[in-house]
Each structure stands twice: as C-alpha cells, then as structure tokens.
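Subject: design request, 432 residues
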C-alpha cells in the first residue's frame, strides 16, 4: 500500500547523529510500510491514500520503553500509598485475581490510550503472554513483550515454570512482524542471585535482550545491601545480567560507581519519572547518567503507578523535573527529551529503523493537529513537543504504514467494548 502525506510540517533530524531537529514542510512517500522518500516522488509512485498535511505536524511515534499494559485495569485503585504497601499490600493481591482474558482486555485499554496519545511501540513486562500478544496482534501496535520472571533457589520449580511460559510464548509467536520478546528477571528483590545467573545464561544462549527493574526504591537498595553486601547494580553485574542487550527500568538510587558500571556494560536505562514521583521513590540522576554516556529511554510504567500511559506527559515531566532538581535550566533539554522518547526507545528495543523520520525507516508515525491553542503560535515546535503538547493533539497514528487511528477515530479496536469489559472485570475483582 502506498501512502502520501502531503506538505506537512515534519520533525526531521538535522544531522546524521539525529540529536538535533528541524521542522520543515515536506511530503512523505510511504511504500509497503517503509518511508520510501522525503519530498522526491519515487518513480511510478501512485498513492493509494493521500493525507493532507496542512496545519499538522508529523513526527516519529513515541516509544514507551517500560510499562505493564494490563495494569490499566488497576488504574486509580491504589493511590497515595507507600511503595511497599502499594505493591505487596494492594497491587499483588489484586493481580492474583486476574485471568488471562482480564489481561487481554487490560492490554487493549492500555493500547487504546497509547495510540490516542501517540505511542506506536511499547516494551512490556507482565504475565499471560499469549493474551497480551493477541491484544497486540489485533490492535496493530508494535510491542516487545516479556514474561515477568521471579525465582529463587529454595523452590527452583517456580522460576523454571515461569521461564517455560516465556519460552512457550516466544516459540508460539516466532516470526510475528510486530511482536518480539525479551527475558525479564523482574527485580533483584524477586529473583535471587542463582536465578539471576540462570536467566542470564538463557538470555545468552537464545540471544535475547533482558528487561528488568533496578533500584526503584531505597528499601530495595537497603535489602540487597543486607542480603548480598552490595548494591542492586553490583549484584546484577556479578550475576551476568548487565550487558549491552539489557534494559533497566527506574535506576532511581544509583551511586557513582553504579552509574559507571551501567555505562561500561552498555546497559540502557529506562527512566520513569512520573511513576517514581507518584510512588515517592525519588528522582533518578538522569543528567549524571547522560554525562556518563548511558543510553536512555523513557517509560510510563504501569497505569497503577502513573496513572496514565501518556508519553507526552512523561516527556514533559522528564524535561521539567531535572531542571528543578538540579537547579540547571539545561538539564534534559527539549531536544534531549524528544531523542530519549523516540530514538532512545528504538535503541531499547534493539531497532535502528524506528524513532527517526528518514528514508528506509519503518513508517511508525504520528500526526498532531496544530489547531489547538496550546500549540499556537507555531514558533518553536520542538519546544512545544516537550513543554506544551499534552497528547490530545494526536489525531492520526500509523504503525508500519498501517493506520490505527485516523482523525481520532480508532480503526482497529472497538473502544466501547473495551471499556465495558474492563468495567466488568473491575466489578468482579472489587475495585469499583
Ligand atoms: Ni515496572
């Protein structure tokens, strides 16, 4: 299918390293899901569909590099709680009641919200892999899924069974053009050192990327220090989990030594500023990590701790909090924030064909309507994306050249049905 997006203001990389942008009006030619050409009409190109770009802005889709999509069922039902009370006292008992079908509907709700606010790919960690994969398959969004793994030496069968679930899903969905998998040792406090070593060896054997949580709360650091006499980062480094194929969510409480280890190993840190603020876990040392050369991506975390999956809100928060926390107006500039929310996420997924609009890249694109008071005047749209866009401006979304939302109409998901099903689940598990 050929798509022409005609004369639209477009967020383009200024130079080869793609860390600076220019916004200029151009026409984008898309062929079979790939950006074929910018401005120069390819020979014999005949558009099956033309999108008029007047008054609109085209940019790469945002990449939510850390979330738990199905937790959208648990939105607004565990708020203003201490981290441990939130997780162990409220969230986990509710999760025990969820079935695979519940997680399917929860994922659909999450995907609706992500599409509506301009996310075209997400990296997920949860359970019921098949149900999640089905929701991703049907919706047209792109995702990297990972079965959250927990395990310890006292009862090896627990860890083994979860690994088996991960392998089964990987086998079943092998070759899907929009679904990939990682191995996900959940966190240092839910996977002991022996299980971490097992997962690291399996990831190496199968050449899979690793998705984990590190140093989300101070309590985690204290407990790991007590049990192992080192920091969570040092522990994961010893067990072989930190490589250039590892992505680590949160990383709020890092020492300078931890930062050096993550940089040396080439780990990608996925920062989750809103979730860290809401659960009162603190503010990650993002500027220090940038200085150390750590690869960064951005994620919302789940809707139970955010409580949205809106990457524009996340981008705005990212660009604001580090300025305030560091008394430095240059901390995480608008451009840096956009790079982290797009190219950073692509790198976290292990993809070099996403996150930048250029010929040869996959057409995961979003169109924002500039006919909104907060987008006017259009005198600096790069700043606007970080500081004044709120996500409601997104009106058209495509993944691999397939339209998932056009003029705010969802094309692949029946939103009314999703709201109805999720509402029924909430009634059953007792959250409404
Ligand atoms: Ni998380």
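Subject: RE: design request

Done. Sequence follows.
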């Amino acid at each position: 299918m050929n798509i022409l997006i005609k004369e639209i203001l477009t967020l383009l990389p200024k130079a080869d390293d793609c860390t600076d942008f220019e916004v200029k009006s151009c026409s984008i030619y898309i062929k079979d899901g790939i950006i074929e050409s910018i401005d120069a009409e390819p020979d014999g190109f005949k558009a099956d569909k033309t999108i008029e770009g007047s008054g609109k802005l085209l940019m790469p889709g945002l990449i939510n590099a850390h979330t738990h999509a199905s937790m959208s069922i648990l939105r607004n039902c565990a708020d203003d709680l201490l981290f441990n009370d939130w997780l162990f006292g409220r969230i986990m008992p509710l999760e025990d009641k969820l079935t695979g079908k519940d997680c399917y509907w929860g994922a659909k709700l999450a995907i609706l919200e992500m599409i509506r606010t301009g996310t075209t790919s997400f990296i997920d960690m949860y359970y019921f892999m098949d149900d999640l994969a089905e929701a991703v398959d049907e919706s047209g969004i792109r995702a990297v899924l990972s079965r959250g793994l927990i395990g310890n030496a006292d009862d090896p069968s627990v860890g083994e069974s979860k690994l088996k679930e991960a392998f089964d899903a990987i086998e079943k969905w092998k070759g899907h053009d929009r679904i990939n998998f990682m191995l996900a040792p959940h966190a240092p406090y839910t996977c002991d050192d022996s299980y971490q070593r097992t997962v690291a060896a399996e990831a190496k054997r199968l050449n899979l990327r690793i998705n984990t949580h590190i140093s989300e709360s101070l309590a985690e650091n204290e407990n790991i220090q007590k049990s192992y006499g080192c920091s969570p980062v040092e522990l994961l480094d010893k067990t072989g989990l930190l490589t250039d194929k590892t992505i680590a969510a949160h990383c709020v409480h890092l020492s300078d030594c931890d930062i050096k280890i993550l940089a040396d190993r080439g780990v990608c840190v996925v920062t989750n500023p809103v979730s860290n603020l809401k659960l009162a876990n603190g503010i990650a040392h993002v500027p220090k990590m940038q200085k150390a050369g750590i690869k960064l991506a951005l994620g919302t975390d789940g809707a139970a701790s955010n409580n949205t999956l809106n990457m524009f809100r996340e981008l705005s928060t990212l660009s604001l909090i580090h300025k305030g926390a560091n008394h430095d107006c240059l901390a995480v500039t608008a451009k840096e924030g956009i790079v982290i929310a797009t190219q950073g996420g692509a790198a976290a997924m292990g993809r070099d064909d996403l996150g930048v609009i250029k010929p040869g890249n996959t057409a995961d694109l979003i169109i924002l309507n500039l006919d909104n008071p907060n987008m006017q005047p259009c005198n600096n749209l790069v700043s606007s994306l970080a500081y004044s866009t709120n996500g409601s401006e997104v009106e058209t979304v495509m993944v691999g050249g397939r339209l998932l939302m056009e003029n705010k109409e969802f094309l692949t998901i029946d939103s009314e049905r999703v709201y109805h099903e999720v509402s029924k689940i909430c009634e059953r598990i007792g959250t409404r």
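The radius of gyration is 21 Å.
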